[in-house]
Amino acid sequence: MAANMYRVGDYVFFENSSSNPFLIRRIEELNKTVNGNVEAKCVCFYRRRDISSSLIALADKHAREVEEEMENTELQDLSENERHQLKHRELFLSRQLESLPATHIRGKCSVTLLNETELLLSYLEREDTFFYSLVYDPQLKTLLADKGEIRIGPQYQADITDLLNEGEEDGRDQSKMEAKIWDGDTPLTDKQIDQFLVVARSVGTFARALDCSSSVRQPSLHMS
Fold this sequence. Notes:
5 helices; alpha+beta; two-stranded antiparallel sheet
């Protein structure tokens, strides 16, 4: 088996049973424990087989709503076999974290938020590629749309106001607009700003040094 390098942010397969499909996780931390082993703290993704039939029906309803909203007829052109394969590529993101032995990693994969402008077949054409659009709560047993979803279409675009002419007053109440937190016209010199940044970074380094964790965080993991 060829050597692999795993880093924080990678999507990977984990093996927890020889009779079940690989788990799909995103590595959040790689920690070396006191006994020398490496554990991966991961974000959990769930497959359709992991959630109840009532939630699967809810996921199917959401998929139909997205299709109608985007006026996407591609699903109608898919064969039954392609529809079946596509369901196996769908995952459900969760906010749940778990720690797993790094020795159980079985390779990398790709997981992306469903792109409504991309052809669904593109997920089938790429090996080990999965998508998600809903967030699953394993405690509450709920499915919700991911807040990171990008909405496309004229109904989701901002209305741009007309450009003010030179000398023309803006009639809006500026006190109700956003608060200004930075002014480029500052009396501080570049040297003073650099000194502040150095102090800020030093405080952060000192705080991390005081965090006496029982494990050592690793930037990456090399496995063969």
